[in-house]
Structure formats: structure tokens, C-alpha cells
Design a protein that fits this description.
Blueprint: E1 4-5, E2 10-19, E3 28-29, H1 39-50, E4 59-61, H2 71-81, H3 83-101, E5 110-122, E6 125-135, E7 139-147, E8 150-158, E9 166-171, E10 180-183, H4 190-201, E11 203-205, H5 209-227, H6 236-252, E12 255-257, H7 258-265, H8 269-286, E13 293-295, H9 298-305, E14 311-314, E15 318-321, E16 329-333, E17 339-343
Antiparallel strand pairs: 1-5, 2-3, 2-5, 4-11, 5-6, 6-9, 7-8, 9-10, 12-13, 14-15, 16-17
Helix pairs in contact: 2-3, 5-6, 5-8, 5-9
């Protein structure tokens, strides 16, 4: 898996435009000069741009007909060839493309920063990159200014440094395959994801070990939470156990083998058969390409494991967190018709 290192990153150029919502007839305005940035602010700005990026998951530009018909890809490819003379004009063209896609009432206006970076480590090579960052959520903050005999407290509005609203970095490598693209880790609603990732950038996941690990865990989660939801013969505790065994399989191995996974996680023939049918339908419906054997990405396992729910809720009285063996739990019904779980353990903590 290729690693991306921003430790020695340099911000070479930066320009800021304003992009409104075209549907609401909000304006788009362009800067004709690069943004002025003092050195004390530079480190905060880089933190604002870079920290939310998902450095483990790589994307690339694509187009259903021909890659060169992807406008952001084409502008990026040309800009990499001559950033000194093309930067301002091409940044304005990128802003225009974003404005044309701002056609949903939930899309907010904001400042669009286009950046040119150098000295990014990509595996064992050093490359440059183009950054596209949109700031939308203007938040209030307090200012406390000391005077001779006290303080003046006031407020202003700005952007929280904790992370950009929408962002991407286009790495100058593998240009003929659509470059490598990183996007921000901001969890957006479906319409915002579609607008930024699908309509504006038009990017797709690169089919590497991170993608394969993530997608197979998603597939397994959907099988247990959706397909088995209609199976009344499988208890909630058993479903949680299936999820736990799935994650445990990935945590303990470096290489995934589909047949081995099915044998270890799904202990009976009916479950394995049901999973294979669901697996085939899931791949076709979601258009995912996952090989039957691949190197496991520990980063993807760590992230996807957080989405696997292991809480057994009993009425409104108890929540049982199941992390270990299902064999330490017994389920039954007493003579009065009350359902119960019996739990075995060694010691309290």
C-alpha cells in the first residue's frame, strides 16, 4: 500500500475565490491575485487543509466515456505542466466548474481555496500536488483583548481550524490513470457527497488493499444487518457474534482468503450458501470488484470495525456489549414466558 507523507509539505501558491449556490442565484467572484498569507498563519492554514484528509484511501479521476472528458482532471493535468503561468486562470476555471455543480438547495456558498503544493512524499518518491478546498461553515468565536484596567470581550466570525468542510488533494503521479486523489474525512450527507465527490470531482476508489478490505467488510456487515434481519431463526446475539468473528478474522491475518473466511465465520452450510448468494448480488448491485484473495489493510479494518455494532439491547433496561465468545452466553425462556440471557465470566472489572 502506498503511503502519503505531508511532513515536509510546502505551500507554493494559494488563491481564494467565492463560490455561491447557482440554484439560488448567489454570486461567484474571482480573485485576480494570489492570497496574502503571513508566516504565522501558514501553519494554521496547512493544518486546516491537511488534517481532515484520508491518507489511507486513494481515489482517481474517471469518466464513463473517456478520462480526458473529466474537466477537473484535464485542468489539473495542464496545470501541473505549467503552474507558474496557468495557476490563476486555471483556478478560476476550477471555481466555475464547482459553481455549475452547485445546483441543490442544501449546498452552501463559501470560499474556495486552490493551492499548489510541493515536497510531498508518496512512497519512495517526492511529488507536487494541487489542493481544492471549500470553506462553508462560518462560525462565531470570542475575542478577549486586555486593556490597561480590564478586558474588552467581543466576537467575530471565521472558520474553525479543526477541519475543512470539503477538500481534496490531487497528487502528481499516474496521470494517465487519473492521478491519485485524497479527499477530506468530513462525513457529509448523501447529497453533499454526490455534489463534491461524484458531480464535481468525478472520482472513484482505487482498487487497492484498503478498498478491498473496506468493501468486503461492508458486504459482510450488510449481509448480517440486512439479509439476516428477515431470518427469525438467528438471534441478535448470534448476529453480533458473526460480526465479531468477521472483524476478528481480518485483525488476525495479513492475507484474506474468501473460502477460509466463509468456513471460519459462517459455521453451517445454510449460512455459507446464503452469504454466497448475497455476495454475488451485492457485487453486481454496487458495482464493486473484490478479488477472492488480497492483502488486508489494517487501517481499513480499524476504521470499519467502528461501524460494526456489538450492543445487544434488551427492552429499555439493559445494554449488553458483546466482544468475546458467544459460547459464554445462553438464551432461553422461563416457565412464565420471560426471555433471558445467562452469561458466564471469570471475574468482574
Amino acid at each position: 500500500m502506498i503511503t502519503v507523507d505531508f511532513t515536509d509539505l510546502e505551500l507554493e501558491k494559494l488563491i481564494t475565490h467565492h463560490v455561491g449556490n447557482k440554484l439560488r442565484d448567489e454570486k461567484i467572484s474571482f480573485s485576480s491575485n494570489v492570497s496574502i498569507l503571513d508566516e504565522s498563519t501558514r501553519s494554521f492554514l496547512l493544518k486546516y487543509f491537511i488534517l481532515p484528509l484520508k491518507s489511507n484511501e486513494l481515489f482517481s479521476f474517471f469518466h464513463s466515456v473517456e478520462l480526458s472528458m473529466n474537466d477537473v482532471y484535464l485542468l489539473s493535468k495542464q496545470l501541473f505542466k505549467d503552474p507558474d503561468s496557468l495557476f490563476i486562470d486555471y483556478s478560476q476555471n476550477i471555481a466555475k466548474l464547482l459553481y455549475e455543480q452547485s445546483m441543490h438547495p442544501k449546498i452552501k456558498e463559501g470560499e474556495l481555496n486552490i493551492a499548489y503544493f510541493s515536497n510531498i512524499c508518496l512512497g519512495d518518491k517526492v511529488t507536487n500536488a494541487i489542493g481544492i478546498f471549500k470553506s462553508e461553515n462560518n462560525v462565531p468565536y470570542l475575542k478577549m483583548n486586555a486593556k490597561k484596567d480590564g478586558y474588552i470581550i467581543s466576537h467575530d466570525y471565521g472558520y474553525a481550524i479543526k477541519g475543512i468542510d470539503k477538500g481534496c488533494i490531487i497528487l502528481n503521479t499516474d496521470s494517465e490513470m487519473g492521478f491519485y486523489v485524497l479527499i477530506s474525512d468530513n462525513e457529509n450527507k448523501a447529497i453533499e457527497t454526490q455534489y463534491w465527490k461524484d458531480d464535481f470531482l468525478k472520482i472513484q476508489s482505487i482498487n487497492d488493499e484498503y478498498y478491498k478490505t473496506k468493501e468486503f467488510l461492508n458486504l459482510t456487515k450488510d449481509f448480517v444487518s440486512k439479509r439476516l434481519l428477515v431470518d427469525s431463526n438467528i438471534s441478535k446475539a448470534d448476529k453480533i457474534d458473526l460480526l465479531n468473528r468477521s472483524v476478528e478474522y481480518f485483525k488476525k491475518r495479513e492475507v484474506f482468503n474468501k473460502s477460509e473466511f466463509e468456513e471460519e465465520v459462517f459455521k453451517n452450510d445454510d449460512l455459507r450458501s446464503s452469504f454466497k448468494i448475497f455476495d454475488k448480488a451485492y457485487r453486481e448491485e454496487n458495482k464493486v470488484d473484490i478479488s477472492d484473495s488480497f492483502n488486508i489493510s489494517s487501517q481499513a479494518v480499524k476504521k470499519q470495525a467502528r461501524a460494526f455494532k456489538n450492543v445487544l439491547k434488551l427492552d429499555k433496561n439493559f445494554d449488553i456489549y458483546i466482544h468475546g465468545s458467544r459460547d459464554l452466553m445462553e438464551q432461553g425462556v422461563d416457565e412464565n414466558g420471560r426471555k433471558y440471557y445467562k452469561i458466564y465470566y471469570q471475574e468482574e472489572s
